[in-house]
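Q: Could you fold this chain for me?
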Amino acid sequence: MIEGIFPIYKEKGPTSNRTIQELKKIVGKSKIGHAGTLDPLAEGVLVVAIGRKFTKEIHKEEAKEKEYLAVVRLGATSDTDDEEGAKTLCEIKRRPSILGIRRAIGKFVGEIEQKPPVFSAVKIKGEEAYKRARRGERPEMKARKAEIKKIKIVSYRWPDLKIRVITGPGVYIRSLARDLGETLGTGGYLRALVRTRVGNFSAKKSFTVSEFKEKLENGKIKQRNLS
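A: Sure. Below is the predicted structure, expressed as structure tokens.
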């Protein structure tokens, strides 16, 4: 059975773990792992390691630069910081101008302090924060250092702001959307997200699970070494 590091395109809807489970049905008994979880509502590049040799090295892929295309919905907040949560409309005195947005974005480029979303896999006293949140708790999330290398405005038409973001490891785009909305005084949450690149793996050169299966069966996928 084939082994290596492969870029899989996780589609919107399933969890990253569900995507891995589907791949396990294809690769059989081979050990399998992935770098960098994508939320169910997000889509894009999920770097997958197949084979014991490669799963041991998958952490190197997780540490690489990532690129995202995100849509931030201004004018409201979400208790999950994304489209999935309960929304609260915010009172807006003035819609931000494109110049005001550029100024606000500049505050988030570089090494920043960022609080992970409450609904995240960050562990609080040994338990994932999202499990506590689902029980009605509001765990205190501690800020951690994160690096955002670049943010570019792609388009802006109230209330939606589309941005392209290049990050180091460990950045939550949901948190960026939330914090940007707070800085603008409008509130904000992540409406849509595509991870377009991880290291040298791009979305254009990634396979959906069904494409991976088809190409593997037809002998069109070759062994891949670490990138």
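A (continued): The CA atoms of residues 71 and 162 lie 4 Å apart.
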